[in-house]
Amino acid sequence: MIANPNHNYMSPEEYLEWEENQPLKHEYINGEVIAMTGGTIAHALVASNLFYQLKTHLRGKSCRPFIFDAKVGVSESGPFHYPDVMVTCNEQDKRAKTMINFPCLIAEVLSPGTEGFDRGQKFQNYRQISTLREYLLVSANQKMVDCFRLNEKGLWELSTYGEGDEIELASVEFRIPLDLIYEEVVFSEN
């Protein structure tokens, strides 16, 4: 990402106040405000399917899943992102009004335009969240999920899942077949 020298940067406080009144969502990174764009049908289905499975599994438990419109704050001063799906089990987040601060699981559905950022800078930002235990990168073009898990040594380990696999999400004590995440998804042929 290249900074525009003519861009008027906002403080975190200015962004949070301004963004509450915007019709579109905007992420905030190092003073820069970035408009969120729409995704494909496959992107929406994959995120919705994952959210639905998590919501069903977590019903009646202390954890809460969120989709699309819930903002996560990496710290009080940002960055602020809108993950496709996230789960929090933290009591403080139950009283949250504008953003989640203590997620244990975050999932981003990949698109060609954001994949590099989601794997790089965004993951670097998310790793600053002390409660985060798993980060999923879910392809919208094929049945494939990369799951980064924080191990007991404080290192992030990668597990890749494909056709016919089942993912174990330790942060929420849940096993989910990949086929349920991709239910009704039709991949475009390029």
Automatic annotation (TrEMBL):
Pfam families: Uma2 (PF05685)
SUPFAM superfamilies: Restriction endonuclease-like
Positions of the Putative restriction endonuclease domain: 12-172
Keyword Hydrolase applies: yes
UniProt keyword terms in alphabetical order: Endonuclease, Hydrolase, Nuclease
Superkingdom of source: Bacteria
Protein name: Uma2 family endonuclease
Source species of the chain: Laspinema palackyanum D2a
